[in-house]
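Revision sheet: structure tokens.
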Amino acid sequence: MPKEKISIKIYLAIIAAGVMSFCGILIETAMNITFPTVMKEFQVSTDIVQWLTTAYLLVIATIVPISSFLKRKFSNKILFIVANLLFIVGTTLAIFAPSFIFLLVGRIIQGIGTGISLPLMFNIILEQAPREKLGSMMGLGSLITAIAPALGPTFGGVLLTTLGWRYIFIFILPILIISLIIGISTISSQHVSENVRFDVLSFLFIGLTFFGLIYGISNISKVDLVSPSVLGSLIIGLASLTCFVVRSKGLKNPLLDLSVFKSSSFTHHALNAFLFLVCMLGISFLIPNYIQIVNRESAFTAGLLVLPGASLGAILSPVAGKVLDKVGSFKPLCGGTIVAIIGMLGFSLLGRSLNLIQIVLLFVIYFAGLSFVMGNTMTTGLKGLSQKQVPSGNAIFNTIQQFAGAVGTSVVSTIVSAAQGNSTGTSYITRTAFGSQYSFFFLLFLLLICLLSLFSLKFRKEI
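Predicted:
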């Protein structure tokens, strides 16, 4: 039986939708480098400028969970056009922002567009890709989104030092317009709208959940754990999450179908995806700071040094998907985790005195391993769901990505900050190296949990 071929139109549709996700992630990682310049230009403090990222992530985290509802209500083409136009409006506003508040509003509008677009690409793949090529196509989707954080710091650093921070948005604008033209021509408009009601109360609970959790976790390294900013926010987040779960169980058509967690395989892979993302984003925070503080190199040099590993990890994503299609899930997931563990073990053992060559080599090994688990974990987790449950499963995986970003950076920064603030008579550089090493060991522990989870699924024949 000949394998079903994938048309060029489907490839273009995936790329058009993926470009928005790519641009959203690229801007997020590129903007972090511009904060000192933006603070000086608009005369705002560090706490204020951080909202350019925090507000953006909060909006995405609130929009992504309702993507399964939007999928049932509207066609992929309508969702794509709305998301793209919102992104273009937000980008244009950021380019011409005369004050900080206009820039912040532009970032929030971009966040709405990104929140709609993130699950859209994977929904197109899950709907239109042949079953035997699902891993390869999900790998392609992972490549589009994974290469953005690899390029972001370098992209932002180059433009900031040569043309100015506004050119980050200026360069993105024509790319968005081209993707809009391609998407209108290739994304299917066929859709049977379901008569489902939008539950405003559930949406409010989602918003409060992620505001509380992300805001609380992001403040752990800045203020006391028992402060209102941390403990108070976390209580609000957890209480809202509980209300959302209870509310969803009582609705015939909830915004997010939580019955997907009845699948042991899906639950294990969702947890693994969260831990893998914490590990990926945690190391992406640690290494650039280590290079700048411990090795005393510039931010631009730090961006260049992490580029080979992050780029290789992104490029290998489609290869990892093809391997999954040929040999099944367990071998690439287990093998990739073990390779990532080897890289993290190297960071952990050498963490007090890493030189630049060691950093580059271990970073390459680490991301090569992660490339075989990131997209494949999502693909395997969704395979066990019914067609009706897939949009909700996809929404959950994309929501996990946003939440893991806040957790990964906050936890490792807290560990490093605690070591830096420990008055032991050692230098700030030495204390930073110690804190980084503790963080490496923490991330190594999370990877070992993932490996045990995979063997547990294999033992129960669920993978």
